[in-house]
Design brief:
Distance between the termini of chain A: 48 Å
Largest sheet of chain A: 6 strands, mixed
CATH superfamily of the largest domain in chain C: P-loop containing nucleotide triphosphate hydrolases
CATH superfamily of the largest domain in chain A: Periplasmic binding protein-like II
Number of strands of chain C: 18
Structural class of chain A: alpha/beta
Largest sheet of chain C: 6 strands, mixed
Order of helices and strands of chain A: HEHEHEHEEEEEHHEHEHEEHHHHEH
Structural class of chain C: alpha+beta
Number of helices of chain A: 13
Shape of chain C: elongated
Chains: A alpha/beta, B mainly alpha, C alpha+beta
Number of domains of chain A: 2
Oligomer: heterotrimer
Radius of gyration of chain A: 22 Å
Helix content of chain A: 25-40%
Number of strands of chain A: 13
Number of helices of chain C: 9
Helix content of chain C: 25-40%
Shape of chain A: globular
CATH topology of the largest domain in chain A: D-Maltodextrin-Binding Protein, domain 2
Strand content of chain A: 15-25%
Chain lengths: 387, 302, 326
């Protein structure tokens, strides 16, 4: 009996040590910047949103990976992920050379030491990228650039033109005025949506002193939560799967709420919907390609980062996903009207977008007198809002 | 005789394999141990140990900045299960849905299983058995999305109910309960059908013969005998509902269940310890439930 | 009449289980339905109980037409072949069941159930579950459960079929006593002719969905109407018309029982083919001209021991013992 107990304890102890080891191994120090490129390693492992690295296997006409492979000799293995948070845990396994991450993940990757600073001189296409996308707080820390842009877009306000009258111009239709459409309001199902409420409060309740919807102190977060809890009573459903959102608007289960341009574009011709950028501006995303600090194929990774910002590849990738390209030269390779639809290069439009950024306790708006609420606080708040 | 047997003995070459075989043949216990080694290894290490790891994780914490799990022993996560109103609200809601789904499934399964077992001829029974099993071949997600379409404002349900002056429940807790009830119905019908199959037909005749009308026979003879099977079915419906987070996401509107909280903590918050702590709730509920039905013999019917 | 069956047929698909049957059973009678399996006797019992409904004809119990009534609306009770005890109830609860559904009060219920159990000598087993009882004990519980509701008619479907010989014989006596004691009608289905002869006031012989003959055991044994009855009830030497003409000068199909054949000094010569010792008697298989004849002689007959295989004996068959068959 005694022996058995000892054995059982030993097994548990061994497992605990194994797990501790894993956890410890995941956090390593940031890599150093590369000075010059070496020979390509013939292989490259990428992690990104679905549709960010298409090799023709989903649709033979959609393929910008094969030309890259022919050009560089780097064989690409691509793994798509569903949410920023899933991306984070996948990337921590250390199997990936590069990742396409949204602003709500990039800071966490940089802080966790998972990605390395980039030498933009080694990325020729970087010079063509819109300047308003460079050196932003979701891709640059302490003057070091950690990511090159892939594409960007805004979270728009979609509404059913038959039901929602008069046509809204403000987000108030889903906040203060939401009860008019009780049960048919929809919102994006993620803690990052708290920023949408914060943006609304920033414009309508200046007394709260919100300067950046991603930098909220306890009081400001509480105000946003109150607003979202009031909204919750009118929400029919939250969405995170964009196909689900399309269907809801088509059947009339949802009539007003957050959307993406790609959703609007995918709606059937019969659907009486419109999507606008409200007067308050909007939250949005700007995705960046980053290289793992311990990347096994760092040269191929640099080649990929350079390739994805070339006009032709960037046009193909962003048009397929439904977001604005990062260089004006891309427009000539995209279908007619694409750049206009997505407001590519429109700095005024882009200025109204508050790109997804991971909230951290060090306030992103520069305040030093208070601690801001971090993403885990937002996550807990989001669960409370949904109830 | 002697020469004969020695000839026969020489004809069989003494290979190592044969020696092992004959050794095992003479050591029944060793043989048994070797046989069950693989399943025990699987059950022990992969199943029990991983569950144990999960439970242990609940008492760890995470580094808030990097999101890495840290081995700092504490009861904060478990304590918050009791102190945070969110968790008790969601737990009660989840139990409520699970109970509702279970009761409705049993009420639906009883007549279907009874018809299959005691009324239908062999042909009709086969057709019914296939119809009950058929949905199990379709993907869970496909079924959930099919119900999303059925429950929508332009769905079949609305089309049926509109002339009656009613509306589809839409994407709501009720809609989720209907969908979950549909999902788990086969898992409730099958054990009840199995239980009814074991009730000899002449018991029903005997009851009727002794003066019991149909309803009395059902209440006093059939239900008590198949009670363990009903409980077995209820364990499926209840525990599967308890752990669901996909259906509620697809047809449950803005509502969340325990599974969503666990999923959010693993997927969004990257907070494995909190997720593990939340996972303790359904485990505890199932322990209480299984403990209370253990004496009925239902666990022999799973 | 306790039971009156008129023109009743029962078909299962193309198969006719019971064909235009007429049967009257009197009050207080111990009536047996005897026949090979598949002859329709159990179906008739089920029609009386109401488990099956007839395809044609009427069934009356005590003058009341119950043809289409459910079992629970008929004042008959059944003892099933495999007992059909409720496995989830103990012995006394099983016996109480009929009273419980009749909403008899708890104390009266218990008292009457105990009395019924005492009748079948099982009062000590009241708290046991059926699974803890032997076959014979379960049979008694089934009996007690049926009689506790005081039916006018008790139907018994091969109730002793699953018991071993010794137990069966003692249960036969108990059944007979019980029936006399209760004074109610017993309708007893069996394929065992000895059982039927021992117990019954009257017996109906079933064959292929029809009754071949109804009569007292004595009548059936002594005066079988058909070859089927003659052969099914006891052992019979059946002669074709030609053989009868040859042996007795009667140009009809006839029958004689083995024990009515005398072996001795007089009569026709026959060869002993086989002799079988049966304890109280010895059975001889004889060859009489071209006809095979079975004779049975008391074992106490000293001469009988001398008739060996292949020896010749003289056979004496009295014409008065001869029964003419249809």
């Amino acid at each position: 009996m005694k022996l058995k107990k000892v054995k059982a304890l030993a097994v548990v102890a061994a497992l605990s040590i194994a797990l501790t080891g894993c956890a410890a191994g995941a956090s390593n120090t940031a890599g150093t910047m590369l000075d010059k490129l070496g020979a390509n390693e013939k292989s490259l492992t990428l992690l990104g949103w679905p549709g960010y690295a298409e090799d023709g296997s989903n649709d033979p006409k959609v393929d910008w990976v094969t030309p890259f492979e022919k050009e560089t000799g780097c064989q690409v293995t691509f793994k798509p992920y569903g949410t920023s948070d899933e991306a984070l845990s996948l990337f921590k396994t250390g199997q990936y050379d590069a990742i396409a991450a949204s602003g709500d993940a990039t800071l966490r990757l940089i802080a966790g030491g998972s990605v390395q600073p980039l030498n933009t001189k080694l990325i020729p296409s970087y010079t063509g990228v819109y300047s308003f996308l460079k050196n932003r707080n979701w891709n640059t820390v302490d003057g070091k650039t950690y990511g090159v842009p892939h594409g960007y877009g805004a979270n728009l306000l979609m509404y059913n033109t038959k039901v929602v009258t008069p046509a809204p111009t403000s987000w108030s239709v889903v906040f203060d005025g939401a009860s008019k459409y009780k049960g048919k309001v929809t919102a994006y199902d993620s803690p990052i949506y708290i920023a949408d409420a914060a943006l609304y409060l920033m414009k309508h309740q200046p007394a709260l002193g919100i300067k950046n919807p991603y930098a909220l102190d306890d009081k400001q977060l509480a105000a946003a939560v109150t607003l979202l809890k009031a909204q919750r009573a009118n929400v029919g459903e939250y969405w995170s799967d964009y196909l689900k959102s399309i269907q809801s608007f088509e059947t009339g289960n949802s009539v007003v709420g957050t959307t993406w341009q790609v959703i609007k574009n995918s709606m059937s011709a019969k659907a009486t919907v419109d999507a606008i950028l409200p007067t308050e501006g909007a939250t949005g995303w700007s995705d960046s390609w980053m290289i793992a600090s311990n990347a096994k194929h760092v040269n191929c990774a640099y080649q990929w980062l350079s390739y994805i910002d070339t006009p032709k590849a960037n046009a193909a990738a962003t048009e397929y996903f439904g977001e604005a390209p990062v260089t004006s030269d891309a427009c000539q390779y995209a279908s007619a009207g694409f750049c206009d639809t997505y407001h590519a290069g429109d700095a005024n439009y882009a200025a109204q977008i508050w790109y997804w950024t991971t909230p951290i306790s060090k306030c992103l708006d520069g305040r030093t007198d208070v601690k801001c609420t971090d993403y885990s606080a937002w996550t807990k708040a989001w669960q409370d809002i949904k109830g | 005789m002697t020469s004969n047997s020695s000839v026969a003995g020489a004809a069989i070459a003494v290979t190592p394999a044969r020696r092992v075989s004959s050794y095992l043949y003479n050591h029944a216990k060793l043989r048994l141990r070797l046989l069950i080694a693989a399943p025990v290894f699987w059950l022990g290490l992969v199943y029990i140990a991983s569950l144990l790891m999960l439970l242990i994780t609940a008492f760890w914490s995470i580094d808030e900045f990097t999101g890495n799990t840290k081995v700092i022993w504490n009861f904060d996560n478990v304590t918050s299960l009791f102190t945070d109103a969110l968790y008790s609200t969601v737990t009660l809601r989840t139990i409520g849905i699970a109970l509702g789904v279970t009761v409705v499934d049993i009420l639906l399964a009883l007549p279907i299983a009874f018809f299959m077992s005691k009324v239908a001829g062999p042909k009709v029974r086969n057709i019914l058995a296939i119809s009950v099993l058929l949905p199990l071949w379709a993907s869970y997600l496909v079924k959930a999305y099919a119900w999303r379409s059925v429950l929508s404002n332009k769905g079949v349900l609305q089309w049926i109910l509109e002339p009656l002056g009613l509306n589809t429940p839409g994407y709501s807790l009720f809609g989720a309960a209907i969908t979950l009830g549909y999902m788990w119905l086969p898992y409730v019908i099958l054990p009840i059908f199995g239980g009814l199959e074991k009730v000899p037909g002449n018991l029903l005749e005997a009851s009727s013969d002794l003066g019991a009308k149909t309803f009395t026979t059902i209440r006093r003879v059939i239900l008590p005998i198949i009670l363990p099977s009903i409980i077995a079915g209820s364990i499926f419906a209840f525990s599967l509902t308890l752990g669901d987070y996909i259906t509620i996401n697809i047809v449950g509107g803005a509502n969340q269940m325990l599974g969503n909280l666990i999923y959010t903590n693993v997927g969004t918050a990257n907070n494995l310890p909190m997720a593990a702590a939340l996972a303790l709730i359904p485990i505890a509920i199932m322990f209480v439930y299984l403990g209370s039905v253990r004496r009925t013999g239902a666990l022999n019917n799973l | 009449m306790a039971i009156s069956i008129r023109g009743v047929s029962k078909k299962f698909g193309d198969f006719t289980a019971v064909d235009q049957l007429n049967l009257e059973i009197g009050s207080g009678e111990f009536f047996s339905m005897l026949g090979p399996s598949g002859s329709g006797k159990t179906t008739v019992l089920r029609l009386i109980a109401g488990f099956d409904l007839p395809t044609a004809g009427t069934i009356s119990l005590d003058g009341e037409d119950v043809t289409n009534k459910a079992p629970f609306d008929r004042n008959v009770n059944t003892v099933f072949q495999d007992y059909a005890l409720f496995p989830h109830l103990n012995v006394i609860e099983n016996v109480e069941y009929g009273l419980r559904v009749r909403k008899v009060g708890r104390e009266e219920r218990r008292a009457r159930a105990l009395a019924a159990l005492e009748k079948v000598h099982l009062a000590d087993f009241a708290e046991r579950k059926p699974a803890q009882l032997s076959g014979g004990q379960r049979q008694r519980v089934a009996l007690a459960r049926a009689i506790v509701v005081e039916p006018k008619i008790l139907l018994l479907d091969e109730p002793l079929g699953a018991l071993d010989l010794k137990l069966r014989e003692s249960m036969q006596i108990e059944l007979k006593e019980l029936q006399r004691d209760l004074g109610i009608t017993f309708v007893f289905v069996t394929h065992d002719q000895d059982e039927a002869l021992t117990l019954s006031d009257r017996i109906a012989i079933f064959n292929q969905g029809k009754i071949e003959q109804i009569g007292t055991p004595h009548e059936l044994y002594e005066k079988p109407a058909t070859e089927f009855v003659a052969r099914f009830v006891g052992t019979a030497n059946v002669f074709t018309a030609a053989q009868s003409q040859n042996l007795f000068g009667v140009n009809k199909k006839t029958m004689i029982r083995p024990e009515q054949i005398e072996l001795g000094a007089t009569g026709q010569e026959a060869t002993v083919m086989e002799s079988i010792y049966l304890g109280s008697s010895i059975r001889f298989i004889l060859k009489l001209a071209d006809t095979q004849v079975i004779a049975e002689v008391s074992a106490s007959d000293e001469n009988a021991k001398t008739y060996r295989r292949n020896s010749t004996v003289k056979v004496n068959m009295s014409k008065t013992d001869l029964v003419e068959l249809d």
